[in-house]
Design goal:
mainly alpha; 294 residues; globular; 86% helix
Length: 294
């Protein structure tokens, strides 16, 4: 029987996930309808739509995976976890592409690379989205095959099998997972960090130039830049917290029966929910649709 603290955080996790699914479903409905009606979307809205769809599925799979593990409805190979890994990897890459897109379109650097990217980014984004989808699919498939082979080898050895071979198989499986996660998580995280810091540096420099040219009280453009910096700072905090929670989950410091596991899940998905809320409030289309609905 779970403790009262575990039950409380389980309920909070469920309510938070359902609210996030409702929120992301709203984004997908609004932007998806416009995508179909106009036969296309601006690049930023295209990334946001894919990100919202991925997060909608991620929250649903997260609820299913956690409760199946909690009630011990698990098998030797948990295929639901592989679906979660695929959606998580795709979400991480989408957040990196969104940060890179904002950096390229908003930053005021005069380097030739940025001018080339500003010109090419509308054509590159659809290819990057498809490429990320393919890479995440291949990564998850290879991980699923490796896990199935590992389980098969451990089963064939039996309880009286070669302990050295069993230990070697387990070690290889762990290293393979870490290498896979390292590429699928650290690469987009580094791209995200570089893009966000470059964009924040560009906005701060632009604000200083505007103050030097127009001394006096802050005008509307400087206030808009300030709000953008605050959103980027929260974007950075939420993404970093989500990334650190992924590392903690890999270390397996807690079990699913522990209330600390559910505390971590609540904090992890809270960051995703709040970031999605910022995307909704910062989009004029989504704000207008939100006011129309409510």
């Amino acid at each position: 029987m779970p403790s009262s603290a575990t039950l409380i955080f389980m309920v909070i996790f469920c309510l938070e996930s359902l609210a996030a699914m409702l929120q992301n479903g709203f984004v997908v409905t609004v932007l998806g309808r416009e995508w179909v009606r106009c036969q296309g979307l601006p690049v930023s809205d295209m990334i946001v739509t894919c990100l919202a769809a991925s997060r909608f599925c991620l929250h649903g799979i997260g609820i299913l995976n956690n409760f199946l593990a909690f009630f011990e409805f698990c098998y030797q190979v948990n295929y639901i976890t592989f679906f979660w890994n695929f959606l998580n990897n795709f979400t991480v890459w989408l957040m990196a592409w969104l940060a890179i897109f904002y950096c390229v379109k908003i930053s005021s650097f005069s380097h030739s690379v940025f001018f080339w990217l500003k010109w090419r980014i509308p054509r590159l984004v659809p290819r990057l989205l498809v490429g990320s989808l393919i890479i995440c699919g291949l990564s998850t498939t290879s991980l699923a095959i490796e896990q199935a082979v590992t389980v098969e080898m451990s089963t064939s050895l039996g309880p009286r099998g070669n302990c050295t071979a069993d230990r070697t198989t387990l070690t290889f499986s762990q290293y393979y997972f870490l290498c896979n996660a390292g590429f699928m998580w650290f690469v987009p995280f580094l791209l995200f960090l570089v893009s966000i810091f470059l964009l924040m540096f560009s906005l701060c420099r632009h604000m200083e130039q505007m103050r030097d040219r127009r001394p006096g009280p802050l005008n509307c453009r400087i206030q808009a830049h300030s709000m953008a910096l605050k959103s980027l700072a929260f974007f950075l905090i939420s993404y970093t917290a989500y990334f650190l929670s992924l590392i903690v989950s890999v270390m397996r410091l807690t079990t699913v029966q522990s209330h600390w596991h559910w505390v971590r899940e609540v904090l992890t998905y809270a960051g995703i929910y709040l970031h999605s809320l910022i995307l909704v409030l910062s989009s004029p289309k989504l704000r207008k649709a939100l006011k129309t609905r409510f």
